[in-house]
Amino acid sequence: MPGKKPSRAEVQESERAWELKEIQGLIDLLIDREIQEFEMEKDGMRIRILRGRSAATAADHPVSGNSHAAVSVGSAEPVSVPAVLPPQEPAAPEPAPEASEEGLHVMKSPMVGTFFAAPSPDAPPFVNVGDQVHVGQVLCIIEAMKLMNEIESEFAGEIVRIHVENGQPVEYGQPLFTIKSS
What we know:
The protein is an alpha+beta fold. Helix content is 17%, strand content 34%. The chain has two domains: 8-82, no CATH class; 104-181, CATH 2.40.50.100.
């Protein structure tokens, strides 16, 4: 009927369908950018998306061989939502830094984002292997949600290894630099 006002249930169902489309669009964006973990709060709704199998998701959200995204909205329990992903080769594990050597410190990513070694595409990198750095010196930039975050050194010493390449996506806790104390 043309003049019929939708019921409250119909309005809620329509809003829920729109939210699910928005969430699926967000999942698709995270897949395109190869981001493994994402959390956001908007208008009183909190959403957390985890892709793949990490230590946190393996225990809380067992998954089969297919990739899934764990989605948590509001105070509801997280649910496992199949994410339509192209088949991916398993990533080769990154060799562990020689932490047993005395004086080596690993700077890890404090967030999920995109690693940039220089302040702009035409500028030289902030640091290179062999450079001496001091506490508080900018080592790189991590772009997260269109914000450029300068990552400062927590240690003084010599850069002995850069674990990621310019423009590469990084995850929370992923090694970025190995620094040998001076």
